[in-house]
Amino acid sequence: MALRIFVTGQAGVGKTTLVERVAREVDRWGYIVGGMITKEVRRNGKRVGFRIMALDTGEEGILASIRGTSHLPGVPFGKYIVHVDEIERVGVSAIRRALEETDLIVIDEIGPMEYKSDEFIRVVGEVLKSEKPLLAVVHRKMADKFRPLGKLHTLSIENRNAEFGVILDEIMKELKGLRG
Fold first, then answer.
1. Rounded Cα–Cα distance for residues 163 and 139 (Å)
2. What is the pLDDT of residues 67-116, one digit of tens each?
3. What is the pTM for the complete model shown?
4. Which among 86, 103, 111, 158 is placed 20 to 30 Å from 117, CA to CA?
């Protein structure tokens, strides 16, 4: 079974930072990394939305924005509007390319907002059926759903540096094994 590493934890503990660090290190060793990263958009210190970025191309889109602050169409989700078209244009496309072209697939994040897209749900299923190693951030409310599918690491401020080393070691061992 292919390596599946899921990272979860409270908001602000460094899940995205950890995944980005691992992706950079794996890339530095000459492996191809693809997929997507999600980042907060802040204005005047307040979170006003989330952007999504393809790791391979750097292409960006708006995952979600506070209601009334964007002209993009979307689906209501709490105080946000989730821009399903953007998830599919940037995120789903990046994950599909990663399935074909990379050594490691990164998905940040698998969460309730992303699950507003049927295409996102479908491509995550394809990744889980593939033989490609996966490093994914899973929203804490969805962690139990993914726990049986791989190794779940719960990040905290106290353990995030140690977890970075553990996760990087697991991934490098897997990638080196695949190349023989």
1. 17
2. 888 888 999 999 999 999 999 999 999 999 999 999 999 999 999 999 99
3. 0.95
4. 103
